[in-house]
């Protein structure tokens, strides 16, 4: 059986692109099933509930299995045992750091979500998208493009989302997007540690490790009111993991910008990367919505 | 302008996939042009002549240019200055060893040729393939799949080749394929050095460098009659480049097998990889047609 899964610390795109692509593979006559590599966040749970889709099974280890990697390609973000899996293919929209010793299928497009690519593949194969799958894929597009506000959004994402919304019976994409983000950003109920590790990745730039976390909210005041508590937790995680820096992006999708919270051995490279002074562990970056496109590249350039 | 090019030491697939894809990009409204990274072989020259296509311009350096990599992805096989180019995308059917610091388009499929993928993209975009482009793409498929005899051949290659043959007015694909291979294997006119460096790649397995060359012929007797001269040249190249081994695959496409000529510091791992004894620097490998699929993987497995 073919195991289809997105990255660890799964978000809606990782989960829904896997559900959507596993269904397509089955329609094409393959024995395929979607899996997840961790706990679902509140947003993804809401999406699966609304469209009546079962939570994918947890995959503990990929060794010896036939697998498709969705929404990621770096082994560090993939399943345990991925080094010993038989990779059939990759579908992704992130930067590429991939090596494999035989020819496989690799489909990457610089679009707003991996679910956009999956929807396009249904079109190419001429397979009809059922209502529940359309709902999942649409929700993943809305999530990854921050309701089309992220600079990663392309014309293709908009076109495909409109088609999916029609199939899924979502009349108001923005209203549904805001409902999703509200579910994700129920900050009041979260511990400071859960906020700092909400949606994080660890990068290494020039030998220095940086954890970059993102919290997307409809109104940033609730999180920023807890700033001292969050900074203390970031400091703790930085020491625990021996990191150069811990960053938390508090992205306000209504204001269309990010408050970057910073704890670092040296803030100079971070200030240089964004051309702004960091005051009291924080800096406001207007227009910044995307970790991948607006935070990682300038940091990498300065620190590599 | 977008520069579209295949790998160094270009073969028909490298050149024709670039010609075909640059044309598609232009049809899609982009300013794109095909380039080559070296001298064309006699087979490719014949193909371009038959279908009335101009020889692409030589690209000396890719630094600072917008580029598409065709039929390769490893920087070592790519243009000089590739590290400083702006890569827009990759279309390929080889194993992957690729890293790039921003999201791009990467389309790889485990099909018999990159030109098959290019023809498929015309279909997906709904762009008509003109006669001369169809002829080039068809010829590249025939070349890379050894007229559908290589184990790398897929059903998709056969289907697409049939459609291209109809557009290009090629009534007998096999006859045209043999004519192409005859042009490529005019061994009588070649020096021993040109034979040994006919179509080669240098690999590194567990720190040991191996040059693997391939000569595809309709009748292997002409090359094998010059074996001593060729072995002496292989020995010379091995010393010049400080290699662990130099291999020459003399692939007879009619007999459907390869005589592997071997010069090595130690033949044991090579014998182990193929489960056969090497006598007088040579071993017959029935059914072996593909360096990528049948020579590289077993060597890598034994030596890594």
Output the CATH topology of the largest domain in chain A: inorganic pyrophosphatase (n-terminal core)
Cα shape of chain A: globular
| Percentage of residues assigned to helices of chain A | 25-40%
Query: Can you write the helix and strand succession of chain A as a string?
Result: EHEHEEEEEHHHHHEEHHEEHEH
| Name of the CATH superfamily of the largest domain in chain A | inorganic pyrophosphatase (n-terminal core)
Would you report the number of β strands of chain A?
A: 12
Biggest interface: chains and residue counts?
A-B, 23 and 23 residues
Major β-sheet of chain A, in short?
6 strands, parallel
- Name the beta content range of chain A: 15-25%
Q: Using only CA atoms, what is the Rg of chain A?
A: 19 Å
Instruction: Give me the CATH architecture of the largest domain in chain A, please.
Output: Alpha-Beta Complex
Total of helices of chain A: 11
Distance between the termini of chain A: 41 Å
Oligomer: homodimer
User: What is the mean pLDDT of chain A?
Assistant: 95
Describe the 3D structure.
- The structure is a homodimer of 304-residue chains.
- Chain A has 304 residues and is of the alpha/beta class.
- Chain A has two domains: 2-182, inorganic pyrophosphatase (n-terminal core) (Alpha-Beta Complex), CATH 3.90.1640; 192-303, DHHA2 domain (Diaminopimelate Epimerase, Chain A, domain 1, Roll), CATH 3.10.310.20.
- Chain A has eleven helices and twelve strands.
- Chain A has helices spanning 12-27, 42-50, 114-125, 131-144, 155-168, 173-184, 192-196, 221-224, 227-240, 268-274, 291-303; strands spanning 2-5, 32-36, 57-58, 66-70, 86-92, 96-100, 105-108, 200-205, 208-217, 245-252, 257-264, 282-286.
- In chain A, strands 3-2-1-4-5-7 form a six-stranded parallel sheet. In chain A, strands 8-9-10-11-12 form a five-stranded mixed sheet.
- In chain A, helix 1 (12-27) links the parallel strand 1 (2-5) and strand 2 (32-36).
- In chain A, helix 3 (114-125) runs antiparallel to helix 4 (131-144).
- The mean pLDDT of chain A is 95.
- The interface between A and B is medium-sized, with 23 and 23 residues.
- Strand 7 of chain A pairs antiparallel with strand 7 (105-108) of chain B, so a sheet runs across the interface.
């Amino acid at each position: 059986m073919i195991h289809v899964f997105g990255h660890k610390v799964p978000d809606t795109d990782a989960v829904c692109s896997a559900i959507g692509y596993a269904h397509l593979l089955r329609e094409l006559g393959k024995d395929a099933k979607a899996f997840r590599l961790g706990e679902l966040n509140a947003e993804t749970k809401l999406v699966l509930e609304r469209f009546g889709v079962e939570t994918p099974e947890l995959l503990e280890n990929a060794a010896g299995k036939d697998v498709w990697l969705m929404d990621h390609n770096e082994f560090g973000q993939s399943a345990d045992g991925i080094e010993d899996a038989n990779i059939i293919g990759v579908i992704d929209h992130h930067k590429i750091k991939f090596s494999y010793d035989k020819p496989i299928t690799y489909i990457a497009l610089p679009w707003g979500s991996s679910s956009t690519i999956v929807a396009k593949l249904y079109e190419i194969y001429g397979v009809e998208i059922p209502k529940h799958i359309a709902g999942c894929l649409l929700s993943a597009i809305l999530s990854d493009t921050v309701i089309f506000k992220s600079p990663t959004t392309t014309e293709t994402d908009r076109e495909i989302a409109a088609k999916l919304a029609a199939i899924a019976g979502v009349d108001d994409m923005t209203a549904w997007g805001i409902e999703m983000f509200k579910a994700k950003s129920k900050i009041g109920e979260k511990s400071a540690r859960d906020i700092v590790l909400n949606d994080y990745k660890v990068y290494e730039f020039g030998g220095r490790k940086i954890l970059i976390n993102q919290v997307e909210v409809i109104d940033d005041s609730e999180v920023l009111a807890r700033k001292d508590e969050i900074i203390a937790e970031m400091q703790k995680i930085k020491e625990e993991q021996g990191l150069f820096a811990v960053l938390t992006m508090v992205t306000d999708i209504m204001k269309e910008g990010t408050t970057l919270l910073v704890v670092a051995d040296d803030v100079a490279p971070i200030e240089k990367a964004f051309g702004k002074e960091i005051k009291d562990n924080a800096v406001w970056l207007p227009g910044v919505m995307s970790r991948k496109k607006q935070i990682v590249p300038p940091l990498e350039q300065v620190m590599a």
